[in-house]
């Protein structure tokens, strides 16, 4: 059961010491009621399952155009356990409407449904006592800031800052004890603070956000304020928790299919404690799966998708990626399908992504011999994809953040979120220009992807690893901003070695210069002037000498005017670009990128 016993709302509006004083000022519906013998307490829900209760101040709060949209409120509430816990807590709500007829009682606080908000313009402060993994809840005892969806923008486990002790003290939301809540909004900053009944307002809020534009959310300068609660059955939700999408044609992929229940348990309910990071198409979690008599560490990526069009080919290509076998690829182990979600299971890479070691100054820099070995690993993997796999595989997004490091710091190429497979002897059936700015070959927009565009990206990657910097650095001077151009300029001044990562101490000048020259050769403006990945492997391994070319050779160190102007306008290190593809184009969403990413 959920009770609210008092409310103050500051913007020269109203103060109630109990809701019995509110009279006809409140709009109440559902299971909500003011208890006649409860000191004027407002009861939002009781012990009945699958119900909702709302209580809103009838008159909207209106702000004049000359007034800032800001407010401050303070209320006292209590969440009382009645038998087995079946409620989902309560929410303080700011909305453009008091009509929540389209809301569901199950895990949505009586204001949202599975598609978000029925009005699409709602700000809610949730006191949540249920762990809904699909909503990415952090625990079953947390406070969150919601905008138009029950999936919180910001959340924190329930606690308050003790000014006396100088640290946070935990609070059990479902203890039944009265709890104070303060909500303060000014500018675009929203702060939520909680504390036990007898405490003063703590000096630090529990959770805050600096990106809340209330005028944009409400699309007007008027708003209704109130409370909402729901008691959707947790048991009925748990019966649907592990629901999957299975179709007859998937039987042939049986060995690669995992049950959702096994992945849910492996990741401890997709716990925030198991969160590894975000990749190109979703979030990645660490998991542990049983394997014979031992446990296997995996990375589980949750990928959202819209619609079922092409899903058969989609899964077929995922399985094709799972058949790839090379020591320098991150292995795809299996998958699971749900209604709006794919889950991709890959081998866990304990040392994260390479970019963490190249660009994070808090970490010790990788020595040159290790960098060279990683370059050889990735070159070998690409050569395999281009020439040895059953089908030609174009990766289309080669960069340091997509190179993973295993327990021995061997390089493994991952994140096949943009990859394309096609039969040997045929052309890729797509004209989509996808990739990351700085790594994209100039002919991508006119000729589409090819093995040569992968070589171009690998050339930039070679320079990235040797120089310890990203392809585009807007903060640097114009002469150093673009990596390919700057390395070539160093060579023109007969000081090519000056382009290396300044953090490198022990290295072979000949090896570093070879890698830098090879990077420029692979990033040649003309596709025909680039080597194949088979040749690149031989160059890096010392089995083949580099061809003779110079910094003034055609296509060397040249950037297209489009790339220069686009990067200068964006003023950011990288940008993922995607254009519409033909109906025959399918993107593989196998990705295990975690860490800082881009």
TrEMBL record:
<dbReference type="InterPro" id="IPR008271">
    <property type="entry name" value="Ser/Thr_kinase_AS"/>
</dbReference>
<dbReference type="InterPro" id="IPR001220">
    <property type="entry name" value="Legume_lectin_dom"/>
</dbReference>
<dbReference type="Pfam" id="PF00139">
    <property type="entry name" value="Lectin_legB"/>
</dbReference>
<dbReference type="GO" id="GO:0016020">
    <property type="term" value="C:membrane"/>
</dbReference>
<keyword id="KW-0808">Transferase</keyword>
<dbReference type="InterPro" id="IPR017441">
    <property type="entry name" value="Protein_kinase_ATP_BS"/>
</dbReference>
<keyword id="KW-1133">Transmembrane helix</keyword>
<dbReference type="GO" id="GO:0004674">
    <property type="term" value="F:protein serine/threonine kinase activity"/>
</dbReference>
<keyword id="KW-0067">ATP-binding</keyword>
<dbReference type="InterPro" id="IPR000719">
    <property type="entry name" value="Prot_kinase_dom"/>
</dbReference>
<dbReference type="InterPro" id="IPR011009">
    <property type="entry name" value="Kinase-like_dom_sf"/>
</dbReference>
<comment type="similarity">
    <text>In the N-terminal section; belongs to the leguminous lectin family.</text>
</comment>
<feature type="binding site">
    <location>
        <position position="301"/>
    </location>
    <ligand>
        <name>ATP</name>
    </ligand>
</feature>
<dbReference type="InterPro" id="IPR013320">
    <property type="entry name" value="ConA-like_dom_sf"/>
</dbReference>
<keyword id="KW-0547">Nucleotide-binding</keyword>
<keyword id="KW-0472">Membrane</keyword>
<keyword id="KW-0723">Serine/threonine-protein kinase</keyword>
<feature type="domain" description="Protein kinase">
    <location>
        <begin position="270"/>
        <end position="549"/>
    </location>
</feature>
<keyword id="KW-0675">Receptor</keyword>
<keyword id="KW-0430">Lectin</keyword>
<comment type="similarity">
    <text>In the C-terminal section; belongs to the protein kinase superfamily. Ser/Thr protein kinase family.</text>
</comment>
<keyword id="KW-0812">Transmembrane</keyword>
<dbReference type="GO" id="GO:0005524">
    <property type="term" value="F:ATP binding"/>
</dbReference>
<dbReference type="InterPro" id="IPR050528">
    <property type="entry name" value="L-type_Lectin-RKs"/>
</dbReference>
<keyword id="KW-0732">Signal</keyword>
<keyword id="KW-0418">Kinase</keyword>
<protein>
    <recommendedName>
        <fullName>non-specific serine/threonine protein kinase</fullName>
        <ecNumber>2.7.11.1</ecNumber>
    </recommendedName>
</protein>
<dbReference type="Pfam" id="PF00069">
    <property type="entry name" value="Pkinase"/>
</dbReference>
<dbReference type="GO" id="GO:0030246">
    <property type="term" value="F:carbohydrate binding"/>
</dbReference>
């Amino acid at each position: 059961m959920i009770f609210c016993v008092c409310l103050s709302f500051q913007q020269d509006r109203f103060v109630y010491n109990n809701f019995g004083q509110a009279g006809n000022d409140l709009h109440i519906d559902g299971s909500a009621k003011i208890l006649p013998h409860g000191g004027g307490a407002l009861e939002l829900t009781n012990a009945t399952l699958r119900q909702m209760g709302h209580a809103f101040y009838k008159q909207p709060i209106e702000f004049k155009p000359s007034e800032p949209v800001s407010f401050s409120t303070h209320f006292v509430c209590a969440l009382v356990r009645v038998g087995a816990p079946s409620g989902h807590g309560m929410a303080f709500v700011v909305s453009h409407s008091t009509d929540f007829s389209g809301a569901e009682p199950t895990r949505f606080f009586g204001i949202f449904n599975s598609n978000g908000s029925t009005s699409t313009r709602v700000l809610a402060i949730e006191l949540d006592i249920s762990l809904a993994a699909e909503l990415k809840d952090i625990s079953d005892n947390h406070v969150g800031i919601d905008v138009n969806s029950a999936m919180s923008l910001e959340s924190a486990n329930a606690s308050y800052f003790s000014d006396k002790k100088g640290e946070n003290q935990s609070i059990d939301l479902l203890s039944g004890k009265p709890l104070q809540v303060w909500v303060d909004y000014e500018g675009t900053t929203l702060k939520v603070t909680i504390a036990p009944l007898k405490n003063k307002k703590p000096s630090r809020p529990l959770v805050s956000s600096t990106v809340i534009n209330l005028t944009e959310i409400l699309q007007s300068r008027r708003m209704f304020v109130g409370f909402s609660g729901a008691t959707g059955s947790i048991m009925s939700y748990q019966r649907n928790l592990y629901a999957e999408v299975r179709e007859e044609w998937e039987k042939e992929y049986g060995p690669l299919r995992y049950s959702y229940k096994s992945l849910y348990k492996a990741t401890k309910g997709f716990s925030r404690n198991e969160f590894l990071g975000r990749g190109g198409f979703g979030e990645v979690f660490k998991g542990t799966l049983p394997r014979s008599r031992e446990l296997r560490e995996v990375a589980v990526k949750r990928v959202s998708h819209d619609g079922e069009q092409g899903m058969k080919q989609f899964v077929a290509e995922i399985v094709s990626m799972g058949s790839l076998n090379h020591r320098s690829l991150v292995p795809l182990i299996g998958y699971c399908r749900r209604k709006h979600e794919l889950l991709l299971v890959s081998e866990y890479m304990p040392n994260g992504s390479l970019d963490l070691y190249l660009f994070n100054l808090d970490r010790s820099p990788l020595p040159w011999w290790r960098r060279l070995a990683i370059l050889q690993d990735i070159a070998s993997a690409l050569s395999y994809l281009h020439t040895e796999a059953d089908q030609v595989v174009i990766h289309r997004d080669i960069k340091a953040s997509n190179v993973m490091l295993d327990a021995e710091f061997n390089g493994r190429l991952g994140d096949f979120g943009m990859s394309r497979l096609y039969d040997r002897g045929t052309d890729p059936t797509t004209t989509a220009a996808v990739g990351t700015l700085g790594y994209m070959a100039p002919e991508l927009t006119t000729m589409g992807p090819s093995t040569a565009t992968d070589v171009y990206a690998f050339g930039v990657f070679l320079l990235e690893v040797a120089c310890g910097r990203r392809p585009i650095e807007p903060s640097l001077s114009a002469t150093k901003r673009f990596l390919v151009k700057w390395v070539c300029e160093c060579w023109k001044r007969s000081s090519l070695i000056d382009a290396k990562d300044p953090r490198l101490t022990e290295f072979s000048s000949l090896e570093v210069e070879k890698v830098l020259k090879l990077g420029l050769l692979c990033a040649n403006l003309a596709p025909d002037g680039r080597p194949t990945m088979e040749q690149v492997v031989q160059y890096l391994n010392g089995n083949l000498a580099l061809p003779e070319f110079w910094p003034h050779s055609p296509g060397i160190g040249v950037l297209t005017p489009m790339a220069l102007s686009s990067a200068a306008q964006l003023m950011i290190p990288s940008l993922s670009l995607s254009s519409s593809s033909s109906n025959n184009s399918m993107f593989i969403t196998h990705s295990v990128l975690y860490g800082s990413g881009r």
